[in-house]
Amino acid sequence: RAHLEAIEALNPRLNAFITVTPEQALAQAEAADAALARGEAKPLTGLPLAIKDLFCTAGTRTTAASRILGDFVPPYESTVTSQLLRDGAVFLGKANLDEFAMGSSNTSSAFGAVENPWKRQGEEGTVLVPGGSSGGSAAAVAARLALGATATDTGGSIRQPAAFCGVAGIKPTYGRCSRFGIIAYASSLDQAGPVARTVEDCAILLNSMAGFDPRDSTSADLPVPDFAAACERGVKGLRIGIPREYRLDGLPAEIAALWEQGMAWLKAEGATLVEISLPHTKYALPTYYIVAPAEASSNLARYDGVRFGLRENGEDLKDLYERTRAAGFGEEVKRRILIGTYVLSAGYYDAYYVKAQQVRALIRQDFDHAWEQVDAILAPTTPSAAFGRDEKQDDPVAMYLNDVFTVTANLAGIPGLSVPAGQDAKGLPLGLQILGRRFDEETVFAVGRAIE
Ligand code: GLN
């Protein structure tokens, strides 16, 4: 009830939720009470969560923040959300996001932009973005509208909004969480994960979200370790890599200082710092912005006005497709579809798409080499704190630069955790990121807990 009241009071301003489901939440909470009274507590019994509106929820409208899904009500539940329900969680509603998870500012939602609950000191009138695409999830957790949230990360969409909103968030290893029932953006990069107030809360949520699922052919058939226990391992004896190529020209002094602070904390806790090289880092953003739109253009072909969602009637079938897609998709989604179909088209496929796949393999190899020297990598999550809602909106490339430190983990399939670690001169939260070996979230959690 406290969370539902907070949503009622603050959601009109923050717009963190697209759909609130109070009746369902109260019914689930009552069931949780009854289970507790019977002494049948499960890992998440009664814990109120926000669900990114990219996860299909049976019987509850799921929009991907797009007009094209209209009033789509899925007949089935995503694997991740069904596991959360299995473990006793309470769902408050569906969190806002950038349309189809494409963006870094949560300004492209068909249901309106999300506001970051934080304000710059002395500039309280300026509305800041929560980051994206999981801006609703991060804003809801930061503003105490939910105890935790589900999110997805294709190129940074869990970690960047977590950093902008002063909360924790982890993108697990590709294959750790099932993608079944999550609306696809770029299937070889998409991964679900939690956003929560603390590293340990993320670990507890991930324990429920993760696990093998035969309905996702890329899901890993591996046991799920006790992530919460791993948080307490400490970092003594660990080797922490500091990648030289992440010291970008023009990196703001406060981001560099935060990074140094993180290094000092880990050293004080008994870790060894090792300078490493990830030589193909500079190609990561262009590679990502070819691979992701290519896969998106293919995944979004299914929104044709025939099978589900919005339909704009036309003169004939082709006209129906065109009218539906013209009316249903927003500007950024159309831009990605155009880029994607271009790089996949005959004559350009080898020059762009195949080349990007080759560079992606090199980026993955950079990390494989790094793991011979270090157990985890420490880097900033973002090159800046949250920016104003009116900034960067007319320059897609400036917007894409937000993702410079996050896309590498998706291209390589490795886990990445963002931890709130400091603030900028105006009091805004800043995040540090810990990257780890494939399926070694445990070390990532241990390091994250040490700098939290
Ligand atoms: N900002 C990146 C993009 O727009 C990442 C989004 C995501 O991780 N879903 O593609």
- The count of DSSP E runs of length 2 or more, i.e. the number of strands, is 11
Bound molecules: glutamine
| CATH-scheme architecture of the domain at 2-229 | Alpha-Beta Complex
Summarize the biggest pleated sheet.
Answer: 11 strands, mixed
Task: List SSEs in N-to-C order.
Answer: HEHEHEHEHEEHHEHEHHHHEHHEEH
The level of helicity is 25-40%
The CATH topology label of the domain at 2-229 is: Amidase signature (AS) enzymes
Query: What is the CATH class designation of the domain at 2-229?
Result: Alpha Beta
Average pLDDT figure: 97
User: What would you give as the CATH superfamily of the domain at 2-229?
Assistant: Amidase signature (AS) domain
Please, how many helices? 15
Q: Which spans have pLDDT < 50 for at least 5 consecutive residues?
A: none
The strands making up the biggest β-sheet line up spatially as 1-3-2-4-6-5-10-11-9-7-8
If you had to describe this structure to a student in words, what would you say it looks like?
This protein starts with a helix and ends with a helix. It is α/β, with parallel strands linked by helices and 452 residues long. The chain is globular, with a radius of gyration of 21 Å. The protein has a domain at 2-229: Amidase signature (AS) domain (Amidase signature (AS) enzymes, Alpha-Beta Complex). It contains 15 helices and 11 strands. Helix 3 (79-86) links the parallel strand 2 and strand 3. The structure holds glutamine. Glutamine (GLN) binds next to loops.
